[in-house]
Amino acid sequence: MPHRHFIDPHARRWTVWDVRPARVEQDLERQRPSSDATGERRSRARGTPWRGGIALEGWLCFECPGIKRRLTPIPAGWERLGDEELAQLCERAASVDRRARLLEEGGTSTDR
Question: What pTM was computed for the model?
Answer without folding.
Answer: 0.63
